[in-house]
Specification:
Strand order of the largest sheet: 2-3-11-4-10-9-8
Distance between the termini: 36 Å
Order of helices and strands: EEEEEEEEEEEHEH
Strand content: over 45%
CATH class: Mainly Beta
Radius of gyration: 16 Å
Number of helices: 2
Length: 150
């Protein structure tokens, strides 16, 4: 039995998404077709060895981005991966998989963790997530958020 191919949704250059596993709603994001993986702003990233397991620990707190929870998050399932920036420099970051909600639909996707305090958006959605799901129209903004608000 073959799965019916879903039509691609039109998305703008920016939007607001929900991160239900973190209890966060309407978090601003930039749609970044130049980035391969998606990225999430976080701070206080470290590894914790406990009960013979390694946890990736971090915080999302940043009032500048409207994220006011001070909770520390711990993930057992994480990776470390090389990420090459637009200027060609390779950086090593941790990555996690989590659920995001866009256009009212849940998607499990990968995010690398990065300190983005000096950036305009706490979240970048990259090509790996966008591919086969969305068409980007850079003249539009908040298409998913506006549909949710109606």
């Amino acid at each position: 039995m073959s799965r019916k191919k879903q039509p691609k949704k039109l998305i703008g250059s920016t939007d607001k998404i929900d991160l239900p596993e973190f209890g966060l709603e309407n978090i601003a994001c930039k749609i970044d077709t130049g980035a391969y993986t998606s990225t999430m702003h976080c701070s206080n990233v470290y590894l914790l060895e406990k009960n013979e397991q390694t946890y990736l620990c971090f915080r999302l707190y940043d009032p500048k981005f409207g994220i006011t929870t001070r909770k520390q998050y711990r993930f057992l399932d994480f990776k470390e991966k090389a990420v090459r920036s637009s200027n060609g420099i390779t950086d090593y970051r941790y990555s996690i998989r989590t659920v995001i909600i866009v256009f009212g639909k849940k998607y499990k996707t990968e995010f690398t963790l990065s300190y983005r305090e000096k950036m305009r958006f706490p979240i970048l959605l990259g090509k790996k997530f966008l591919k086969k799901r969305f068409i980007v129209d850079v003249a539009l903004d908040n298409v998913s958020y506006d549909a949710k608000s109606k």
